[in-house]
User: Which sequence fits this backbone?
């Protein structure tokens, strides 16, 4: 009799434990978006970040996505505070992995140095045309501007962090990277910034910014930074965040999800960049067509 009672008590305790571990409901997500850039696709202007939001909302109708434009600094403050918020487009870094659960979206070529054409000759370039970023950051004759709180990938983040602070590089807050920093270059308030190749795709859709009709800005590769950067959706490392990221990952981890992501990346990258990274992109989207193992 005692054994039977003990067994019943153990079963009840186990059931209570399972009930306590049930994932919390995810009925709404504060959806943090840092990049609302529009890019041309033929005669149509498209906003890849908005398309991702709309695609997920259509497939998760019981979850109310609440798009909120927030810069990287603000987005990661909310995630550190364990709010019920997810960052819609964050570069994966070891530090961020400790704060958030991730599911991958895009694989993007590394950031490049975006520079005014009239300052290009002042840059330290190697024989292949790649920029020595450490030398650029230290050059007091060149004025740089970077987005505060933004990650440019582990390799470039380490270079920036190692550089002694100086007045030649400003770190500015901004909700939408390209819309706030590129005009500073065009207006000659700064000489260079760091960004992904797709920003010049968007810039090319704007009216010509030079009397000659030639683009005012150029994108140059950075020495030692050739690895593609994985971008993903990040939700806080809480029970709610785990439940939210699993829902999102299940929706994206399908052939349809991978095709949507690949198409939005296609319109965002120059054709030569797509060709250069074709093999790694093929492998990335092959993995993305399935749910993430172990998430």
Assistant:
């Amino acid at each position: 009799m005692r054994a039977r009672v003990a067994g019943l008590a153990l079963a009840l305790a186990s059931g209570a434990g399972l009930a306590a571990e049930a994932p919390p409901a995810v009925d709404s997500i504060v959806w943090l978006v840092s990049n609302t850039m529009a890019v041309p696709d033929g005669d149509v202007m498209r906003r890849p970040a908005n398309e991702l939001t709309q695609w997920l909302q259509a497939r998760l109708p019981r979850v109310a996505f609440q798009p909120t434009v927030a810069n990287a600094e603000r987005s990661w403050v909310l995630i550190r505070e364990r709010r019920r918020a997810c960052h819609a487009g964050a570069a994966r870094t070891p530090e961020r992995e400790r704060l958030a659960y991730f599911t991958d979206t895009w694989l993007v070529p590394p950031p490049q140095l975006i520079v005014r054409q009239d300052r290009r000759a002042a840059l330290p370039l190697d024989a292949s045309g790649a920029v020595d970023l450490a030398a650029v950051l230290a050059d007091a004759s060149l004025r740089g501007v970077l987005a505060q709180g933004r990650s440019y990938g582990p390799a470039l983040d380490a270079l920036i962090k190692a550089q002694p602070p100086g007045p030649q590089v400003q770190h500015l807050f901004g909700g939408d990277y390209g819309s706030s920093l590129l005009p500073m270059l065009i207006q000659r308030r700064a000489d260079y910034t760091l960004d992904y190749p797709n920003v010049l795709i968007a810039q090319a859709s704007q009216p010509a910014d030079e009397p000659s009709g030639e683009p005012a800005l150029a994108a140059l590769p950075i020495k030692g930074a050739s690895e593609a950067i994985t971008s993903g959706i990040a939700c806080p490392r809480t029970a709610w965040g785990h439940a939210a990221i699993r829902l999102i990952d299940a929706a994206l981890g399908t052939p349809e999800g991978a095709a949507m992501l690949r198409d939005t990346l296609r319109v965002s990258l120059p054709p030569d960049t797509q060709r250069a990274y074709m093999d790694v992109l093929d492998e990335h989207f092959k993995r993305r067509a399935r749910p993430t193992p172990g998430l």
User: Anything to note?
Assistant: The chain has twelve helices and twelve strands. Residues 112-220 form a domain with the D-Maltodextrin-Binding Protein; domain 2 fold (CATH 3.40.190.10). The CA atoms of residues 244 and 253 lie 14 Å apart. Residues 2-20 form the longest helix (19 residues).
